[in-house]
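Quick start: what a row looks like.
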Amino acid sequence: MAFHDLLVSEIFYSLQGETSLSGVPFGFIRLTGCNLRCNYCDSTYAFKGGKRMSIAEIQEKLRSYRVKNILLTGGEPLLQRQTPLLAKTLVDEGYQVSIETHGEISIEPVVQFCRIIMDIKTPASGMCRSEYIKNLPLLKPNDEIKFVITSPDDYQWAKQIVLEQNLPTHEILFSSAMPTKNSPGSFDQNHLSAGPTWLAERILEDQLPVRFQLQIHKYLWGADRRGV
């Protein structure tokens, strides 16, 4: 693989289904590889495989979408050493670049020119660790923190962090999990004890300063579709 190549699971064009930019057309770059194995993961196919692509090839593909917003996701996009260079190249071309990360890899190489969406893993993910804490001081006010809520225990855990840790971002996202056929093991909708309505009602009841979100792309096109 050439020095500047990346291993790409897929590149596609769709609406952003989450975050404060939900509903906005995006170009998505899903990079291969992840060091976590979350119980509700909906992109296990990105753990391995993919296509080797140069930054120039990725740029050419994105230009056909005629969008201004790009999301780098995975897997875990920051595991690949060329991700910061790819992100900076896209920013220099005029794109607004977001990076979705679990926060265990340092965001320092990209945080100054990308919007960070940090997905802090809740207990039901099976990957609840404290590595994200080292990145919290690096986050900007316009970055975003996301919690995937699958149970009352997840909700109470995330609620405690929101109320006690003085998180540095303006946007804190509470998302109801929506497993798909790609989810590992036997984790499916029957394992969820905190659905969307339950979660919305708890947020209102507790007057939490968070944004409730649904993965709207899955409601529009089904749980396993990857854009148009």
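That is the whole record. The helical segments are 55-63, 83-92, 152-164, 196-206, 216-221. The radius of gyration is 17 Å.
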